[in-house]
Amino acid sequence: MTEAAQPTLAAGGESVGRASGWSRFAEGSGPGYLFLTPWLIGLFCFTLGPIVYSFYLSFTRFDLLTAPDWVGLENYRRILTEDPKFLASMRVTFLYVLFSVPLKLAFALAVAMLLNKGIKGLTLYRALFYLPSLLGASVAIAILWRAIFSADGLINQLLWSLFGINGPSWITNPKYALWTLVALGVWQFGSPMIIFLAGLRQIPQDMYEAASLDGASAWRQFWKITLPLLTPIVFFNVIIQTIEAFKSFTPAFIISGGLGGPVNSTLFYALYLYQEAFSFFRMGYASALAWILLVIISVFTAISFLSSRYWVHYDD
Amino acid sequence: MTIDARPKPGSLEAEQAERRPLWRSLLIHAALIAMCFVMIYPLLWMVSASVRPQDEIFSSASLIPSAIDWGAYWRGWNGLRVSFGTFFLNSFVIAALAVIGNVLACSLTAFAFARLEFFGKRFWFAIMLVTLMLPYQVTLIPQYVLFLKLGWVDTILPLVVPKFLAADAFFIFLMVQFFRGIPRELDEAAMMDGCSAWRIYWKIMLPLSTPVLATAAVFTFIWTWDDFFGPLIYLNDMRQYTVMLGLRTFTDSTGESDFGGLFAMSVASLVPIFLLFLVFQRLLIEGIATTGIKR
Asked: Does residue A4 sit within a domain?
């Protein structure tokens, strides 16, 4: 294997053979690290450095003005044992994740299956269903949502004129406020729908042909063919959407005017963390909150991956 | 890597569609149209609310205003101490810089991962993948402290500089996937001719990668345009505000009284995204389908 026959951009790297790490580094890695430089600077300044510093801050009291004051595990102790707002925000966030993610994915899959039936105008339908996903992160949509679900908003107008029902003020009622946000999340089912659609198109049609010949009903075909073959994509969507849902901030901020009200019913975890950090300048406490969030997301991801071999179908 | 929308003539799907009785096709279309209508109704209602007479906004669920009145756009545009013109300009500048930064820095990084051999490549690649999953809250406060120390708070630098250092790992991943699909023979031939890695990147990879660069550019623009959290934290002076911050301030100050103006500015803020959607719809949808972009 001479270099002339097998050129690589890292010329020289292979000819050194069993050289030590450092000399290999010196010989062939130059261009690679040159191209990597901007990212490496960013990685150390904006990610790795901050992670270490954030971990340290989580054991301190820090208000930005004076130097961080070491308090040991005090922040964590207070969060976990005597912080009602933490509990409220956990409850709100878990309810949101638990309802918005499955509902969103169920809608996404159902619509994707309708669109996968070889119908005309698929491109147009797909674009229209996707539009809310693309616009949904905007403050403008949160404003729209607040107006739609207000006491005299669109929803109550429709309830009144169609069914004669006098609807409540959804946004200002602690019983309903969170559900308007769940609805907003589900409304944005477009992007998982597109991913499902791409997955559905990979399933060989002759599997369905064969199943039909054997007399399997559409219902049975869904459970025995579609869903099992789609589990890798379900898995992917569940992970991505759950992490996104845990981090959700803007809609709750706009709809509750930044307060997470009424009665903390929309106090999303990310919103609570923001308040602690940037309204009360309890930076140490907020750092501890961030680390707890990281632990929760990591545990969730780990469980998903560990459990995946029992329910995710991979090609043999 | 294209996802062709229409079933090809003679394909199984086309046959399936032909065999289906007409009434079933109609039923599917009726269901889809009804769902689309429900989905899009709120958006249409907002557009209609922005041009209807103020007293009609909360008294009618219909989409057709009794009269067209563009006054809300004028009121909204000048509804705050600083005009929305400034906010739009600020948003455009930040989004444009973010696009340039992301496309340049992420493609450089992706090129290294996809094409160059160097010590520790697998390690760095794994780190890059891990940063994809990291919730931003964990780095948020130290970053804020850093930018505060640098004197960058109240400037657009915290929103722009990280893009030039490829902080959006997602786009690196997207580009690595695409670069790997480009035939290696091309750059190997160029290398035999004595091309440097830089020239291969600049003269071969980038020109061949316009689809993925465009996808990254459009998504970066939209996400930066929509970003609320970053500007909320880093921009305090109203003359620096982005459109999203302007909207939020509008809801706090006059929102309860001037819904027309608020809706008008909300609609205006969505126009750039909507135009990008119209032009690049196919690119966006393919980008999501092939990589699983989150929204």
From this structure: no
- What's residue A1's pLDDT? 35
Q: Chain B residues with CB inside 8 Å of A39's CB?
A: 105, 108-109, 128, 165-166, 172
Packing angle of the helix pair B22-51, A139-148 (nearest 10 deg): 90
Q: Taking CA atoms, what residue in B is nearest to A149?
A: B42
Q: Between A57, A119, A138, which is nearest B17 by CB?
A: A119
Please name the helix (run of DSSP H) or strand (run of DSSP E) that holds residue A69, with its range, or none: strand A69-70
A50 lies in the same domain as A139: no
Cβ of B45 within 8 Å of Cβ of A128? The answer is no
Amino acid letter, residue A186: V
The minimum CA-CA distance between B266 and chain A, rounded to whole Å, is 5
B236 within a domain of the structure (yes/no): yes
Question: Does A39 share its domain with A100?
Answer: no
Is residue A133 within 8 A of residue A108, CB to CB? The reply is no
Number of domains in chain A: 2
Give the residues across from A60 on adjacent strands: A70
- Best mutation target among A46, A212, A295 (most B Cβ atoms within 10 Å) is A46
- Regarding whether B263 and B120 lie in a shared domain, the answer is yes
The number of beta carbons lying within 10 Å of the beta carbon of residue B115 is: 25
Say yes or no: A119 contacts chain B, CB-CB below 8 A: yes
Q: Are A149 and A177 in contact (CB under 8 A)?
A: no
Residue position matching structure tokens 């993610």? A101
**Residue-number span of the structural domain to which A27 is assigned:** 21-57
CA angle, B241 then B47 then A108, to 5° = 90
Looking from the CA of B227 toward its CB, the CA atoms found within 13 Å total: 24
**pLDDT tens-digit profile of A112-155?**
999 988 888 888 999 999 999 999 889 999 999 999 998 888 88
CB-based contact B33:B41 (threshold 8 Å): no
Closest residue by Cα to residue A311 from A218, A243, A238, A240: A238
User: Which ipTM was obtained for this model?
Assistant: 0.88
From the list B168, B287, B14, B23, the residue with the least C-alpha distance to A39 is: B168
The string of pLDDT tens digits covering residues A14-71 is 444 444 555 545 556 788 899 999 999 999 999 999 999 999 999 999 999 999 999 9
> What are residue A69's DSSP bridge partners?
A61
Q: Residue B198 sits in a domain of what CATH number?
A: 1.10.3720.10
**pLDDT tens per residue across span B183-238:** 888 888 888 888 888 999 998 899 999 999 999 999 999 999 999 999 999 999 99
Would the pLDDT of A253 be above 90?
Answer: yes
> Is the same domain home to A263 and A301?
yes
B107 min Cα distance to partner chain A (Å): 9
Asked whether the predicted pLDDT for residue A273 surpasses 70, the reply is yes
- CA A188 to CA A184: how far, in whole Å? 7
pLDDT in tens, B151-183: 999 999 999 999 999 998 989 998 998 899 888
User: Is there a contact between A30 and A45 (Cβ–Cβ < 8 Å)?
Assistant: no
Instruction: Among A194, A243, A290, select the one facing B133 at the smallest CB separation.
Output: A243
Whether B272 maps to a domain, the answer reads yes
Nearest chain A CA: its distance from B251 CA (Å):
8
Domain interval for residue B60: 12-69
